[in-house]
Amino acid sequence: MKRTLALCAALLMAIGSAYGAADVAARSRASEYGATSLAANGLVLQPLSGYAFTIAGPAETLRSCCSVEQLRIACAGAELTAADISAIGEDAQVVGFRGWRTPVPLAERRIHVLLASPLEAAASCLVQLEPAFNLGRRQTLVFAPPQRSLAIQVNQLGFHPGQRKYAYVGAWLGTAGPMPIRTTRFDVVGPDDQVAYEGTLILRSRADPWSGNDVWEADFSALQRPGQYRVRVAGIGSSDSFPIVADPYREAYQTVMRVLYHSRNSTAIESPWAWPGHERKGGIRPELDGTFDPRVGTSPLGRGERPDDRHPVARGWFDAGDYGQYVPNAAPLWFVVSLGMDLDPGAFADGDLGIPESGNGVPDVLDELDWGFEWARSMQDPHDGGVYFRIASLRWDDGLPSSVFLPRLIAEKTTHATASFAALAAIHARLLESLRPERAQQAAAAAEQAWAFLASHPAWPEEGARYRNRPGVSAGEYSDTSSLDNRLWAAAELFRLTRREEYLDFYEQNFSRVPLDPTGEVSYSQQAMAAVWAYLSTDDDRRAPALVESARRAVLAGADWRVRQMEAHPFRAPIHPDRALVGWGSFGHSARAVLSLAAAYRLTGDGRYRLAAWDAPAPQFGANPLALSFVTGLGVRSPRYPLSKLSQYSRDGNALPGLPVNGPFARLPTPWPTTRAVVDGYGPAAEPADGYPVLRRYTDARHLPPMSEPTISEVARIGVALALLRDAGPLAAATGTRLQAQQ
Ligand SMILES: [Ca+2]
Ligand SMILES: [Ca+2]
After folding, report:
1. With contact defined as beta carbons under 8 Å apart, do 401 and 265 qualify?
2. Do 416 and 303 belong to one domain?
3. Residue 641: strand pairing partners
4. Same-domain pairing of 458 and 510
5. What would the pLDDT profile of 697-743 be if each residue is shown by its tens digit?
6. How far is the CA of 563 from the centre of ligand 2 (A)?
7. 290 Cα to the center of ligand 1, angstroms
8. How far is CA 652 from CA 143, 220, 278, 656, in A?
9. How many domains in the chain?
10. How many whole angstroms from 493 Cα to the centroid of ligand 2?
11. What is the C-alpha R_g of the chain?
């Protein structure tokens, strides 16, 4: 035993100094299971602190655990007894899948060991897993106190000097519960370990059901000097390194919004604009884009279009993991860019995205919208102004766009798509009015033609009903049981553009018929809050003062709700307090709350909204129990397997940077074997099913759309949110003095 230890001591000198890198390697290896395999008995030892560590390995070989005898641990040469070990816990989770066509779930078991007393910084332990573990032979792992610990979670993109700054300290040991935090002191250190700030940890939530952790908060808001820092806790380790810098989201804004360029149809994606490895030779072949689905001509809004007739469709962006393109789903992009322009026109510049249109005198974000508008216009029927709902393949696409070989089918016109189109075209006309007047006129005419179609045709699908695919079609249906909100938005935007009374009348006569949910996002189905913002932003004396006040109250109610949730949530997430509702990005897309908060700040000047807006992105970028950024390529560690064909089939198979994955999901829908396997894999003793902490229910695998599929509307929401947190923007007007005054 001692001889082995002496041998390993030398080894450890090398390993110890590289531990910061090693824990990242261990972490990324865990997410590589989907691509490689657990079959090699690849056990990973991940230190959580100086007194706790996790052994992770394939569930079929690493047996359920455990006694001290099975787990022989010798620290600094002395074998530990039961008295030296405070607790041993375990948990299990599906961490990925092997194979694509018939995916095999890869279940990982983790054994968590809590020592009674911490190791000295230079010490180490040898952990011997006996054959009883089903490993076939004795395995030896080395534990040393980590330099960087995932038990300290922080926004990995950093902080503006004037904003509030928090890190969170805590970890979960499975069945052994929260890892106890044995100190109440923390400091913040620079690259040379020089202490820049010292503070006291405050308990925010004990045995927190969201994370399983005891959540301790490290508040270092008072530290405002720009630099590169880590939060350090004695006995635990340090956080990831992060900057305090005037413009922490400059690069992130560009990276996220450039997803739109990479998602363009009908063009080669190439150097110098493409990310290396993400070049591709073209979009869908023009002759395939598109033909009418057999149902179009005979649908209630059809005019006898013949099956298989060609109707050329071009440009736009692929909506999500597949290559379908949907008008109501794209419409929120115009809302968020328009909102961003209302709140801070200076946040968007020509040249800021590095796209082919950089340098043409038009803000790049508007160039990008114009690529989308060209497509949306091609989805409008020039004969009557009605708008086809979507263009998509019969079955989910595979491979790159240029390898799609079946004609893409244009689906029926719907009232929902036509109204969403009228709204987006009206916005397009307004945004381009001074920059490209001819284009603006074209967009305005298209918007009004769509509106005229709505006025002269019955609603379809009828109010209360939703669009259903015909048998054999697997493209998205995007359930929306009302088009009235879509129409309300179109009316408000057309009024804002034209100031014509008929649009004002429609809005004012129908406002009370449309349910408002200020806490939700403007989406493919819920567009009432977009209508409200358009009405509120139209400076016109003819508006009814009571409806202006209603609109204002709705915007503020949305922001107030978010502020309240952030104050209550252990990780300051702007989300509903019911944990069962976590999903589809509600936690993973926390930055989107900036849009609501910035709008409220504009209306009131109340600094609470501005401070909350700066807090909002943190859970998305690492201040979460997994210490993981939920946007590919951003932060210290981020997902590698988004559901994105453009990623999967890129030159090296690497994730396209800037994709916001949905992240944790409380109750996965289980019509698929993959999601079923994940739900069944939480354990042990995960019954009732909610016993496994909600914010740990995330698997980085493209097989799980509810966790891993990004969409273009989410890209735009996050991108514009980050654009508003710019150095010179209104939200950044904070100085240290003002921050103090407003707390
Ligand atoms: Ca430009
Ligand atoms: Ca709707």
Report:
1. yes
2. yes
3. none
4. yes
5. 999 999 999 999 999 999 999 999 999 998 778 888 654 434 443 43
6. 26
7. 29
8. 34, 40, 9, 10
9. 4
10. 16
11. 27
